[in-house]
Amino acid sequence: NAGVTQTPKFQVLKTGQSMTLQCAQDMNHEYMSWYRQDPGMGLRLIHYSVGAGITDQGEVPNGYNVSRSTTEDFPLRLLSAAPSQTSVYFCASRKGSDREGEKLFFGSGTQLSVL
Amino acid sequence: AQSVTQLGSHVSVSEGALVLLRCNYSSSVPPYLFWYVQYPNQGLQLLLKYTSAATLVKGINGFEAEFKKSETSFHLTKPSAHMSDAAEYFCAVSNDYKLSFGAGTTVTVRA
User: Fold this and answer.
1) CA B55 to CA B50: how far, in whole Å?
2) Which of A70, B6, B23, B46 is the most exposed place for a label (fewest CB within 10 A)?
3) Does B102 reach chain A within 8 Å, measured CB to CB?
């Protein structure tokens, strides 16, 4: 059981470059999300999706795009990377709404550096 | 919107001593509250969750947390720290489809 798989684990970009962080889950979870983790700030929600074809913004969406064409995949796109986007990125999924107290399953993270 | 505040960014305890991590929440409705743990170079794992069934919640690895509405608190405790408890701990509160995390508390355990 793979759970939540993120690729790549490490990435270095130059300012202005674009790239896509991949996230896939094999648990048939409806809900998927992207967080960024920065020292002293905890995890902040970038975008989330409650099902295929449905996405919405989190706390810090600027500079990022997402799409959800399948239940399994939820890629995060950086259109024009900036040094402020240097961070560790986590993808997380769960079965349904957190109003039911469902736990999030996290990937192992992508460490991104933008020079 | 609901939010959580973790008091203390770093906690250092001796092996065998009590671990106490503080979390206060702000919520206009009965909250769902969580504690997650992050070991070095890993993603977060759920330790325990409060969903109003019982005010004292037991989690994995000997951790427990008590929900106190009068104090708007959800502090995490473990009676006896082990070296393997060294990690970063996050309190979180649900916001419909969004989970809001505290800033985290790093725990170091001294031999």
Assistant:
1) 7
2) A70
3) yes
